Amino acid sequence: MPVSPQVRRLRGRSLAVSLAVAALLAATLAVGWQLAGGTAGPSELSGPWSWLPMLVFGAACAAAGLLWGRLERHAQLRQATQNQQALAELTEGWIWRTDAQHRVVGWRPPPGAPATAWTEQLPTGQLLHTHFEVADPRPSPGALLARLDAHAMIPALRVVRHGTPPTHWRLRALPQYDVRGQFAGYVGTIAPVDAEEQRRLDQSVLQRLWAELDMPVVILRPRGADASGPDWDVQGLSPDAARLLGPKGQQKDWQLVQQALPGDVQASLRKLPEGESRVAGDWKIDLLPLSCEGEALGRLLLLRPAQDPAAETAVSAADQDSFVYSVSHDLRAPLRVVDGFARILKEDYGRFLDRIGNDHLDRVLAAGARMNSMIDALLALSRLQSQPLARKPVDLSQLASYIVEDLRSQAPERQASITIEPGLVVHGDPTLLRIAMENLLGNAWKYSGQCEHTVIEFRCEQQAEHGRVFVVADQGAGFDMRFADRLFGVFQRLHSPKDFQGTGVGLASVRRILRRHGGDIWAESEVGKGARFYFTLG
């Protein structure tokens, strides 16, 4: 075993002390010669002084050797103590010691244990076998005491600790003997096995279900210590995943393995955030994080066949018709009554009301009209969810030009500078994409209405995280980013209806359309400095 630097320094110090003692004794020998023989040399000593040099020399050697031995044993003892402390720090479980009568004299929790573990100690002096008994598989009273009385090694023993509820532990022990060979007690470890058995059960269940999965599933593990890094290795494949990936599924590098996936799935995976789902072609993709006790361990990729749009429409057609009928008739009927009687009151009795009374009636009529607009928007939003996608090439640049021409014709007096990047062609549903572009460009036009000069831009840019991203930017009113999470909610508005009219459904419709295309939308803005809406398409 390697010797620590402290022990090496101690040994060097002990050697130096031993040499110093030997030198001192040698000097004493020389002085003794001089005193015994005067000017004569040591070889001329005779009589009772003849043995003095040999005696002094032997005493010097014996004293130096004794000192060296004691210092060496001291260094070895310190080394053994350090080794014992290091092993105790590496032991996973409680460390305990007993005396020859099996009374507990030491009980130490494992490193990293919570503070409560240090206060939950066995009282010193109590018998170990009164707190634990052998479970084989049922508790066996007296069995632990019999094993302890045998003074033999206990390699691994499942025991039950008395308590409410009783807990299961795994106990190991080694007998200890004193210098006379007498039994001096046990030293051992004990660790709870409930969590370990739960992990074994979870692993067994996973292995049993793994072969029964009817979808491609891939387990990914980070290649390095950072679970958010770009490099991943394939840790496991379900049978369906192995069949889908073919020979490439035998490799470990995920960058190479995913090349066997369908092209639209590969493109969506590059832009899919962890923990979200997305539809890509014929597949629905789920990328789920794997973690344990707050530590990120990897990712789980699920690929499920997307439901056929025609079948989905057929299944939900009855529910959709029922919803549309309820909104169109059941909700509009009382609204028509309120609006009708308010108009009658305004026309027939308005002359008998003062200015405040007529203002109240105008507010009722305006609220009814706004409610009608919100119902229309809600119906349009529900139809977006059920309308099947008809994918084909769509020129977003040309579509944006048509929308801008309509906006200019509605307010020809406005001074506007609108820039549209040409040649932005995507693959999607033309009708739905037109609705999305009308909402985005219409919002940019509307929220720039209070500016002297309207500036709107539609362009495309490349981003490292999202790839190809489309941008609709303006220099209008903008909004506070603290409330950006409300921006795409239904009926959520960040501006007063007095400043800008609207129902609060437009951006919710845009997000639903883009997500049905496998993309997403987000925004950046600052109050008074315009807004930028970024969106992607799968």
From TrEMBL:
<keyword id="KW-0597">Phosphoprotein</keyword>
<dbReference type="InterPro" id="IPR036890">
    <property type="entry name" value="HATPase_C_sf"/>
</dbReference>
<dbReference type="InterPro" id="IPR005467">
    <property type="entry name" value="His_kinase_dom"/>
</dbReference>
<dbReference type="Pfam" id="PF00512">
    <property type="entry name" value="HisKA"/>
</dbReference>
<keyword id="KW-0812">Transmembrane</keyword>
<keyword id="KW-1133">Transmembrane helix</keyword>
<dbReference type="InterPro" id="IPR003661">
    <property type="entry name" value="HisK_dim/P_dom"/>
</dbReference>
<protein>
    <recommendedName>
        <fullName>histidine kinase</fullName>
        <ecNumber>2.7.13.3</ecNumber>
    </recommendedName>
</protein>
<keyword id="KW-0418">Kinase</keyword>
<dbReference type="GO" id="GO:0005524">
    <property type="term" value="F:ATP binding"/>
</dbReference>
<dbReference type="InterPro" id="IPR050351">
    <property type="entry name" value="BphY/WalK/GraS-like"/>
</dbReference>
<keyword id="KW-0472">Membrane</keyword>
<feature type="transmembrane region" description="Helical">
    <location>
        <begin position="48"/>
        <end position="69"/>
    </location>
</feature>
<dbReference type="InterPro" id="IPR004358">
    <property type="entry name" value="Sig_transdc_His_kin-like_C"/>
</dbReference>
<feature type="domain" description="Histidine kinase">
    <location>
        <begin position="326"/>
        <end position="538"/>
    </location>
</feature>
<keyword id="KW-0547">Nucleotide-binding</keyword>
<keyword id="KW-0808">Transferase</keyword>
<dbReference type="InterPro" id="IPR003594">
    <property type="entry name" value="HATPase_dom"/>
</dbReference>
<dbReference type="Pfam" id="PF02518">
    <property type="entry name" value="HATPase_c"/>
</dbReference>
<keyword id="KW-0067">ATP-binding</keyword>
<dbReference type="InterPro" id="IPR036097">
    <property type="entry name" value="HisK_dim/P_sf"/>
</dbReference>
